[in-house]
Specification:
The structure is a homodimer of 285-residue chains. The first copy, chain A, has eleven helices and eight strands. In chain A, helix 6 packs across helix 9, helix 6 packs across helix 11 and helix 9 packs antiparallel against helix 10. Chain A has two domains: 159 residues, 3-Layer(aba) Sandwich (Rossmann fold); 107 residues, N-(1-d-carboxylethyl)-l-norvaline Dehydrogenase, domain 2. Chain A is an alpha/beta fold and 285 residues long. Chains A, B: GO terms for molecular function: NADP binding. Chains A, B: This is 6-phosphogluconate dehydrogenase. Chains A, B: It holds the Pfam family DUF1932. Chains A, B: It comes from Bradyrhizobium macuxiense.
């Protein structure tokens, strides 16, 4: 029996996951309401089928893969459709949201009678030549999504309730994107003070592996910075308002916001970051 | 002709540097005014000679190696002694201070007629079996301190005015200690959410070199966290009050302050960090 999976939305990650699933014979629905022609084309190229919310509510598994700021709104929309259609899908929140936010999403989905799985995606979108990211899942219904392994997804169970997978995603992203953020801030400050070449030389001498990581991570970050703003605020929420490092992630959110604005505007900071990386090109990864 | 070098204060770095210099035949003075018996013993073991400020003002080279919060006060004290004694030493500020602070220190020293060199120390204190840290120096008088190479110090000239060496130190420390800080914050948050083992497993899978670095850096940080508080605030000042990442370094200052208090108190967070590192011991580096 062929599975029907719905993936919202057909962004870079969502459509790449869809392509993997359709390549293994699954039917993959998505919603194209209000989306651009380019997005519709990307969804089509990935083998996705445009569907309305009633059809999406009838899928076996619904994957929510959206920017973190849209995760709650999408959950409300899905819960409403599932309630109307009286279906019983498994809804999987794959978004980079805090433990608190995913708890709220679980309540919204549970109110429709659907099963809920917490998930965190770590890694780059799947490509034909590349195995794809890990989907860490937690909660009592993880057994209902292990079937996705047969369709080519790397599903890994995290022991623990809803929230454990999101906590893993938050803490991993908090380290990985935090490293990129401190490096970006310091490269820009060193450049302004005329010390960028000396900084690069010293990193090459004493931290060659970290420098190699930054040479990949800084160009990769620039075109994604706008998306990371909300994710940094979710990590701040994950720490809690009274945690001494809460400010750190609010600061990262502002830094990524600043870089995203610079990328669309003067590109002064972007040019300095790329000069540091030397020979790197934005978004090449 | 034997050189006379003064080093203030005889802390962990200062006394290790002194030991290297005395081992190569230099006379090394220090001030023990108001210092503990343990510090006096450490200075003695390093071959340092206790001296008053008048004697220190007569040294060929004076190295200021103190916590960043004490750098300006020490500069004022040295300038007063040099003015009184009408001597002409080279004063080298080796402290982790912002470009703005080192500019202020330069003015204070210049008012006494002494020559001034900006320096930043990167690396661990020298040990008999270990070549020691790099001393990056900048400013117009760097030629007056290259003689320290003959005494076993790794002196590296950064092209640029006073401030360039400090900018290198700030940006390097901002990356290196910033990486440790984001990891500490996320390990503690993951531990609280029950996701620490999953976080470690995922880092081992996808970022093994970063994990190896953290296994060294986290235990090394704990006993030094109290010293890093003021250094993080210097880095925030280096970025400037309006920089979007300014908040990040204020947050790191609060995090290190929190960890330092925990180390002296309940040791809850310290225990969680050490459990993550597994088999690591605090301050073993």
């Amino acid at each position: 029996m062929s599975m029907t999976i719905a993936i919202l939305a057909p962004g870079a990650m969502g459509s790449a996951v869809a392509q993997r699933l359709t390549g293994r014979g699954a039917r993959v629905l998505t919603s194209l309401e209000g989306r651009s022609a380019a997005t519709a084309q990307r969804a089509h190229d990935a083998g996705m089928i445009a569907a309305d919310d009633a059809e999406i509510a009838c899928a076996d598994i619904i994957l929510s893969i959206v920017p973190p700021s849209e995760a709650v709104t999408l959950a409300e929309r899905l819960a409403a459709a599932i309630t109307r259609e009286q279906t019983a899908p498994v809804v999987v929140d794959c978004n980079a949201v805090s433990v608190e936010t995913v708890g709220k999403i679980e309540e919204i989905i549970a109110s429709s009678g659907a099963r809920f799985v917490d998930a965190g995606i770590i890694g780059f979108p799947p490509r034909p030549v590349h195995s794809g990211p890990a989907f860490f899942v937690s909660g009592e219904h993880t057994g209902d999504v292990t079937v996705l392994r047969d369709l080519g997804l790397d599903i890994r169970i995290v022991e623990g309730p809803v929230g454990a997978a999101s906590a893993l995603k938050m803490s991993y992203a908090g380290i990985n994107k935090g490293v990129t953020a401190v490096a970006a801030a310091m490269v820009l400050a060193a450049t302004r003070a005329g010390a960028a070449d000396a900084l690069r030389d010293e990193l090459a001498r004493s931290q060659p592996q970290l420098l190699a990581k930054l040479d990949v991570a800084l160009p990769d970050m620039v075109p994604k910075a706008y998306r990371w703003v909300a994710e940094m605020r979710e990590i701040a929420a994950f720490l809690g308002p009274d945690h001494p490092a809460n400010l750190v992630y609010e600061g990262f959110a502002r830094l990524f916001d600043h870089i995203a604005a610079d990328e669309k505007g003067a590109r002064t900071d972007v040019a300095q970051l790329m000069a540091f990386v030397k020979g790197g090109k934005v978004g090449e990864v």
